[in-house]
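Hi L.,

You mentioned the student needs an example of a multi-chain input paired with its predicted structure. This one should do, with 368 residues in total across all chains.
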Amino acid sequence: MLILVKNYLFENIIAFLSVFLAAYIMVLFGEYTVELSALFYLPLGAKILMYLLFGFRVLPGIFLACITSGVVLFNSWNDHLLIGAMAACAGALAPIIAMYTMRVTQVCDFSNLRKIDFRHILFLIIFTSVISALLKFFVYMQSITINIDAVAFVQHYIIGDILGSLLVIYLVIKLIVPLLQALFQEKTA
Amino acid sequence: MYISIQQNFIAFILVIVSLLIAEGIAHIDFTNGNFLFHPIGAAILSYLLFGFKVFPGVAIANTLIGYFLWDNWFGNGITGFYGHVIIGSLAPVVAILIMKLFHLSEFFKDGKLNFRHILFLVILTGLVNSLLKFFLFMGVLKANPDPVVFLSTYLVGNILGGIVFIYMAVKILPILIKK
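Structure written out for the whole complex:
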């Protein structure tokens, strides 16, 4: 029981750190605005990766990371804390909705990562980006103080989410995984 | 050639009848989506049964209804044509091609329709159709639509209408015919 709790906490901490780090890198190298998002919205890629690795049980860690990064890095979404928190909630739930829809309709099952087709992950990224952008659009449009151009909002959010997620997953597969493998091989040798 | 004309005629009848039913249930307006937009289901079923070659049948049905019944697409002319006919007829094709490209589709399993995959196709078609119409119509339509109402009603209407039509055609119609 204790090991299960420890594992749960460890996975959630990993998820929290990776999503927060992705948001930090995004802010460091680019610009994020509530109205137009960022050209490479990296946190979505980190969220998808965490859900793929650990399953839906890392939702609390991811949700906490979204709220923390919004408050600390995005200046409480330009002083729109409530709406921003709701959008963060939508962003944390979007990959779950996408993966669950794909699982229920039996087009793809992400439970066995070894057997997974990379094209399915590519589609998951696009599908999640569209769902995330639409959910955030419906949330942000409820605010009367944020001036949003509806078409530009949806376009920028979808493109930013897709590019950011692709970048994160590409970097993890091509850079981080080989690096870790090389590191562990050196240690065992 | 004969078979192709026959198949196009069946697709034409399916789409035009479903459009008339949708118009009969509730008045259609481009600023709001219809909450049960059957024609998307008719178009999906036509493409699944006969392939992409029934595009002319689907497009002609949409054109006739848009031009004559909806009075030149509610006065929007060529924009209405692009949105309703081109996007409306091509959205299921785009969705099927996306699913094929990403190896997600197996619409027929052991000679039977795989309803779960078709369900996903309907959702994807609804997304493609609603988003493309949203990008085209917003700011172009003569009546200024509310973006949230526009997108939400189109999404819900397309997905619900598609599911209801295909469920009726695949599950209920064969039982009625047997009886």
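You could point out the following to them. Residues 150-188 of chain A form the longest helix (39 residues). The mean pLDDT of chain A is 91.

Best wishes,
N.
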